[in-house]
Amino acid sequence: MVGGQAAVVDSEGKPVAVIEFTDVRQARLADVDLKHAMDEGEGYTTVAQWRAGHEDYWHSTEMRGALNDPGFTVKDNTMLVLQRFGLVARLP
Fold first, then answer.
1. For residues 65 and 61, what is the distance between their CA atoms, to the nearest angstrom?
2. How far apart are CA 40 and CA 28, in angstroms?
3. How confident is the model over 53-92, as pLDDT tens digits?
4. In 3D, which of 28, 22, 3, 19 has the Cα closest to residue 79?
């Protein structure tokens, strides 16, 4: 997947940008590091903040509904796909 490109869509489903994947790796939830947490650009300054924010989303009614699993939960050993990417183009 490194070198692959993808469209980024807004909340209305309109393509707004093209990104290119520069790094893709798998890691356990417990092994996500501070660099990854901060590089996401969502304002997290600790791994604990990053994890709490993501767990709120992953354990939300919306996510559990999308997965059709009302009891879905993540744990330290849950495997994640961590992606890094760069902006190729903004779309009009």
1. 6
2. 17
3. 999 999 999 999 999 999 999 999 999 999 999 999 999 9
4. 28
Domains of the chain: 5-90 (3.10.400.10)
Q: Quick check: helix, strand or coil at residue 33?
A: coil
pLDDT digits (tens, 9 = 90+) for 26-62: 999 999 999 999 999 899 999 999 999 999 999 999 9
In angstroms, the first-to-last Cα distance of the chain is 26
Q: Give this prediction's pTM.
A: 0.80
CA 58 – CA 1 distance, rounded (Å): 24
Q: What is the number of alpha carbons within 13 Å of residue 42 lying toward its C-beta?
A: 13
DSSP labels, 43-72: ---SHHHHHHHHHHHHTSHHHHHHTT-TT-
Residue 45's contacts (CB-CB under 8 Å, 6 or more residues apart) are: 38
